Amino acid sequence: MHHSIEIERLSYTYPDGHRALDNVSLVIQPGEKVALVGPNGAGKSTLILHLNGILIGEGSVRVCGLEVTADGNLGKVRSMVGLVFQSPDDQLFSPTVFDDVAFGSLYQGLPLDEVNKRVDEALEAVHMAPYLRRVSHHLSVGEKKRIAIATVLSMQPEVLVLDEPTSGLDPRARRSLIHLLRELPLTMLASTHDMHLVNELFPRMVIMDEGRIVADGPTTALMTDVPLLEAHGLEPPC
Question: Distance (Å, rounded) from C-alpha 161 to C-alpha 34?
Fold first, then answer.
């Protein structure tokens, strides 16, 4: 069986000379739920953008056994990696919820019957089926987050990647999203500053700082290492 994500010695330097990733290696197994944490500028978002080829650095990135490269594999890789951006407004741009969730499947050229089936299943998975004909930009932030997740679930990905999933949510919407993510039977990698979310949902935690992985282990163990957390701009949940 292939690893869900396999990164070997990945480095990336932005055009301005900033080295955002420095020799990063990481393996995530099928079904794992992993949190990626660290201070701003640690390289978390840069790493995430390598998982579906938005960025291509030096080193090796494989998703479900497929090399993420700038040529032949990108289409297939992007159907395997469901990337949910921090702001749902970056993901929702169609007139209705149906149009947003259907977009990826239509782009793949799937038959309309299959598109409708995938849209229904994705909205059911995020408990948003009644919103099918709603206008996306009229929804609350929490509702938009769920619809954004549905847009990638409709592509039937192997891996769900989330950038700051609880950002901008009120306590009720945040709790609702945590329950939703716990229900989803997918390999999951989330970049987040929300240490309560990490503690509740992710058994494994990877700490990044200055473009490198500085710790990787069970969340329960790393959360008790206060000097480690403080050294990398993190605080344990109270």
Answer: 10
